Structures are given as C-alpha cells and as structure tokens.
Amino acid sequence: MSIEVIERYCKGCSICVEFCPKNVLEMDGFIVKVARPDDCIKCMQCELRCPDFAIKVHTD
Amino acid sequence: MAYDYEKSLRPGKLPHIWCPGCGHGIVMKGLLRAMDTCGLEKNNTALVSGIGCASRLPGYVDMCTLHTAHGRAAAFATGVKMARPEMNVIVMGGDGDGTAIGGNHFIHACRRNIDMTYVIMNNFIYGMTGGQFSPCTPTGDKASTTPYGNPDPTFDISKLAIGAGATFVARTTAFHATQIDKLIAEGIKHKGMAIIEVLDDCPTTYGRRNKFRSVVDMMKRLKDIAVPVTAAGKMTAEQLEGKILTGVLYKEDKPEYCEQYAKVIARAKGAK
Fold first, then answer.
1. Which domains does chain A carry?
2. What would be the CATH architecture of the domain defined by B19-268?
3. A51, B112, B147, B172: least buried by Cβ within 10 Å?
4. Any idea of the CA torsion for B245, B250, B256, B258, to the nearest 10 degrees?
5. Is the ipTM of this complex over 0.90?
6. A7 in contact with chain B, both atoms CB, cutoff 8 A
7. CB–CB of A15 and B216 under 8 A?
8. Is the dihedral of CA B38, B39, B42, B44 positive or negative?
C-alpha cells in the first residue's frame, strides 16, 4: 500500500488534507506531503476529491 | 487500486489550467468514471463545450471533442447528434455559458428532448472572463461587476430545465464526488435530454470576494446547503430555507427528437 503524490500536478488546495479522516496528509509549503502513511485506512477520499489528479492510493 | 484516469486523458495535458481547489477537476473525474461505467468509447462519444473555465474540460479528455462558440455548445451538440444519431453526445459547460449567453440554446435543446447529456457546472460566477456576475450569482453576493452586491434574482437551473422540457434533471455538488458519476451515468443512459447541474466552487473569483476563507470553506458550504431530495419530504419549510435539493429531481419518458425526425424523413420519402 502506498500513497503517491504527483508533485508536478499538485496546486496545494489542501482539500485532501482537510477531508482525510485519519490525518495522514499535511501541507509542506504549497505541496501536500504524506506525513503518516501507516495511519491510512484506504478510504480513497483524497484520491476521489483531488481536483488536480495529483494523488493516488495504491492498495496492492 | 488507484483509479486510472490517465487512460481517458490526452497525454501531456496535465496539470490542467484550473485554479487551486477549483471543483471542475472533481467533476471531470466524475465524468471519466461515468463514461467508464457506461462503456463509452473514443469513437462513439462526442464531448462538446462552449467558452469558459468549465468549457476547457473536453480539451483534456481523449475523445471526439468540439470546442465551440460562447454559449452555443447545445446548438453544436444538436448538430452533431442530428448528423450522427448513434453518437453519445455530452455537453460540458458552466452557468454563464449555459444559462446567460447560451440560455436560448439551452432551453430549446431541453424543449426538443434530444438525446444528449448536458453537465452544467454552476460555480455562481463567470470565472474565466474576470468574475462578472452570472444569472446564478446569489442575490446580494459580490462579483467584479457588482462590487456592492448583486441585485438580481437568480436562476434555478434545474427548475429552468424541467420547465423547458428536459426529461431527466438531476443536481449534485462538487463535494458529493461519488454522486457526480452516478448521476452522469444515469443521464447518459437516459433516452432524451439529461441535465445534470453540479454546484461547484470558484475560489478565485467568487470565493475571495464573498468572504470564504479557503477552498475547504467553500466545499463545506456545498455540503451544508445540499439536502437529498428523498430526505426533503420529511423536512419542514423552515428547515429547507436556503437549502438546495440534490439527487434525481425529475424523470419522465417522452419521444426523443432524433427518432421523431427520422419518422418525418420516412414520411417525406413516402412511407406510411
């Protein structure tokens, strides 16, 4: 399991940070950073809500 | 497994032009999932749009696409559908494009009940042209051309579509991301004019003029004002004050325009 952030696409809107129920993500300047990957429950909210196609949750 | 959006996108087009936090990207993802669900393919699908932020969407999608004159997307789409009735025609546009400049084309496409899906992204403002107020800007809100508040009453796009004769009308918001693809898929499968209004956020030209502190604030507002149409029956008039109904608002079966037109052609050729 891994969370991939495509930094070239991320515009730093922080929607994913706010709607992550387990507080896995945080802002690192204007780019999102996967701060606590072990807490991820694979709810896919970040991937679903990212308007910029910048975040992918690989579950396998 | 992560959903592979890139298989339906033109390579090298990302990152897109929309501002940080703009809901159009969320709608685009919903559209791609819906097209996948319905099994639409590159050579049997046409995406048509006019001018505006929302109308940039077809440029990113690897399908037959048509980027047309401001407000005229529904007219061009009608032409595509009449010439190639086997095509799945999907129109993407914004509230200014669809209901102000293209208001005439919008209502007549609804009236004809031509088999197409119109996804109208209502972000309450003209984004690309500089934040002028649109017919959907809430009364009292500020835009670049209404710095002291907008005096105009607003359009309810879904009611307009129902009144004009569309046979499938649904509404959702950019916050309800999974509902977007379900409603678009239902609209694509519906035989006749399907209008899907998606309430959207424009942080750059609408949000910052109207005291939204962040994109997340705008998303939470969309969540707060939305009431599922199934739950609204149990609510009082006071509870529904300022709320917007979401879900499938109207659905009926009526004769579809291309089929009716084919009958006219057959009659003109002498068939009984």
1. 2-58 (3.30.70.20)
2. 3-Layer(aba) Sandwich (3.40)
3. B147
4. 0
5. yes
6. no
7. yes
8. negative
